Amino acid sequence: MTITGEGVKVSRKLEVNVEWLNKELGVNESFDIIRRDIRFASRQASLFYIDGFVKDEIMLFILRTLSGLDREDLAVDAFKKVFEQYIHYIEVEALDDLHKVVDKILAGGVAVVVDGFEQVIFIEARQYPARNPDEPDLERVVRGSRDGFVETLLFNTNLLRRRLRDPRLRIENLQAGSRSKTDIAVAYIKDIANPRLVDMVKKRIKAIKIDGLPMAEKSVEELITPGNWWNPFPRVRYTERPDVAATHLLEGHVLIMVDTSPSVMILPVTLFHHLQHAEEYRQVPLVGAFLRWVRFLGVGVSVFLAPVWLLFALDRSLIPPGLEWLGPNRIASMPLMWQFLLAEGGINLMRMAAIHTPTALATALGLIAAVLIGEVAVAVGFFNPEIILYVAIAAVGIFATPSYELGMANTLVRIAAIIGVGLWRLPGLVVVTMGTFLLLLTTKSFGVPYLWPLIPWDWRSLKSILLRSPVPLQNLRPPALQPQDEDRQPAPAYKPLLEQGQETLRERLAKTERNEEGEG
User: Fold this and answer.
1) Fewer CB within 10 Å, N- or C-terminus of the chain?
2) Taking a C-beta distance cutoff of 8 angstroms, is the pair 215, 238 a contact?
3) CA 129, CA 259: separation in Å to the nearest integer?
4) Cα gap 396→351, rounded to integer Å
5) What are the residues facing 255 on neighbouring strands?
6) Whole-number Å distance between alpha carbons of 274 and 219
């Protein structure tokens, strides 16, 4: 057996190949690694596969076919005949490197090693355990599709192909992790996406040098995202909805799908991408714009309401005329800043507890949090009632943020603002606000400014963000992505006009009334 670099060439002797594969795969050590010895056409062969990953019906059919072969059937060009004529399956591959054979077996297929063949026949007859593509919990809509991405990569690509039947849709498969060998798919539309962006993403994925990616997409994000690791604002957007992913592909974005994860990464993105939700596009434009503005307001309130109220409570000279009622009538035994910080900690603790609490006990957890903790804490004088109110409003605003990652970043900004106000009053709030703005200003997502289209200014794009524009008017792709094809439709479309001679409903009613009056 010859070794060329990292490759191990397949030997003509079956026992040599079998011995190497047995040792490399741990056939006698792992109960789920199966070696099945067979014989067909007077030749010895061995099948290697992982128990539970193989389609039984397909393999039974192939084995029946091989068992019916005679020695004369393989007298000439034996490998070619078996590969092209007697393996009745669609996805079949010939491999001459045993390292690649091992990788393929561990990915879930079947390797057929035959005595006298210098190549291994690999049959892609794998099936992964998979759940149904149910609607994602974090991206529910009142109306719309109810399917969502799952943990199986092939299913996810099928959900994309179902919505985009464009032959220029490219889904390239890469691998990362020297031990996990995790499949990573990069999806883009070839004549829309910026080629430099696509090359940058693929280059960074190929440059990953790590033993494994058990946390899937989150580990990949941290390994390929440029910039400061400690920046809390997310520079990619996650989605589990195929319709959202397909929409971003049509705009010129690039998707990264990692096997074993239902979350698909969208890049590059801006701050405003994290504030959009599919529900806005499942309603008429006016209702969609209303929902968007309510969401913007909720996000702003979640960040600034608590710090501003604390500022007015600590320095009543800053209260505008007419708002003198703001602030507590009496302060509890604990300073206001510490009340806010403890309440913030309690809210986040209850959020984590809700994640780990079984569904049957979730109601009991809510009662404990609301009654035993909230009301009792106020009754005994630990907290002012206003503190509980404003922290709860801020929590609702965080839950209304479509992006979970942005919601957590906003939580950190709010806590920093509360500490700043508690220590330095108005200068503290100004410093935290300006520091957050500068952080957003200097943040980029794969070359795209995070505050675009606000900074740099682009009124046409900003208008489409502030107002959910009607689909017939969405004729251009976002210029910040530098797409190859800028036009989504030739020109802004309008409602169809009446053809010449076609009567409107009002004209018909008027004519009917005139006829009735004439008959009367």
Assistant:
1) C
2) no
3) 12
4) 12
5) 187, 266
6) 20
